[in-house]
Structure to design on (85 residues):
């Protein structure tokens, strides 16, 4: 189920619509809707946040390029201003 579908599901659930109505509106079986609701205890999850210190997509690309170029871990870390670990 796409993120847009899940957002619609939670909006409809908060509005008081039944699982059957929601499933017809988003085009998914009622069991799929129930599974999403059950997994979160019927409460919409909060927005996801990256952990402090997580690598950015750009840093991951630089690491990949460095590894392909045969650079050492220490050299790649130095370029990124990060610890080798």
């Amino acid at each position: 189920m796409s993120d847009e579908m899940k957002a619609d599901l939670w909006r409809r659930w908060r509005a008081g619509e039944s699982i059957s109505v929601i499933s017809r509106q988003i085009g998914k079986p009622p069991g799929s809707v129930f599974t999403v609701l059950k997994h979160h205890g019927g409460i919409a999850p909060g927005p996801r946040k990256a952990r402090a210190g997580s690598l950015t997509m750009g840093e991951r690309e630089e690491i990949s390029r460095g590894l392909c170029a045969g650079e050492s871990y220490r050299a790649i870390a130095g370029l990124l201003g990060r610890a080798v670990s």
